[in-house]
């Protein structure tokens, strides 16, 4: 290669049926720029939000988007909810039992992608229990970082019943209802980096 020749970088995005989507390849999750949050209710009224800071995995984008794959591993001890007392309780045997079940995983099984979003159905394993869960996913855009890396951002959301995963601890309230809601919303903002390996 002469000094005037340059290496052509493959495009990180493409247009499919008029919509901008990520190029095929393996997009590795950047844990430092990823937010995986859950929202439950306390006393059946107050929203309590927590997040996991240890999120690893990848989004493998296929030439045919319906053949794409998502694999995520979550370190359950990395929970942060704004209260150290509550975090310790969440990690305890009453709830996540992180010593026995240190990780949760999501492995996709089916992708139905249309335009810039779609449904990703996969196996979610929490507390040693696996259930099929649909994620509503959207591609939020692409940017090239100052170091030449290509980054794709995705958002996702779903709702689960924690008792489906054998996380059943609760306290009945004197006036009726339960201390902690069974239904939990999950909201994800995922920043990924295109692997060059």
Automatic annotation (TrEMBL):
TM segment ranges: none
SUPFAM superfamilies tied to this protein: YceI-like (SSF101874)
SMART domains: YceI
Species the sequence originates in: Nocardioides bigeumensis
Source organism, top-level taxon: Bacteria
Protein family (similarity comment): Belongs to the UPF0312 family.
Short name of one Pfam family: YceI
Residue ranges annotated for the Lipid/polyisoprenoid-binding YceI-like domain, each copy included: 26-193
Protein's name in the database: YceI family protein
UniProt xrefs under InterPro entries: Lipid/polyisoprenoid-bd_YceI, TTHA0802/YceI-like_sf
